[in-house]
Amino acid sequence: MWKKVQTPKAPKAIGPYSQAIDTGDFVFLSGQIGLDPQTGQLVSNDIEDQTRQVMKNLKAVLEEAGLDFRHVVKTTIYLVDLKDFVKVNGVYQSYLEEPYPARATVQVAALPKGARVEIEMIAQRC
Q: Does 3-124 carry CATH code 2.40.110.10?
């Protein structure tokens, strides 16, 4: 049986989805954008600021599930502009350590609320 993971330390869902679903062995984290959990607004238009906030939001959801970034096995990064790839990598890497999770990065036409980056994760209980 799976259960919903919800924390006020990350933004409320802006659609019909959960912050994460815990299946017991795996936790599937919905994509996070750079929203401030208190205001529900983007922290800024700066790609590095948004990426830092995304990682803080994901960290909060992981912690609510009793996990941390060491448990992450797969991430997907969505960028509005692949020219931001290097800047996003710099921030992303500062939150993770080797062995890094498997990952895909794709460019998309747009993201909710005008965000420039969205990241989703899959974590595994060890």
A: no
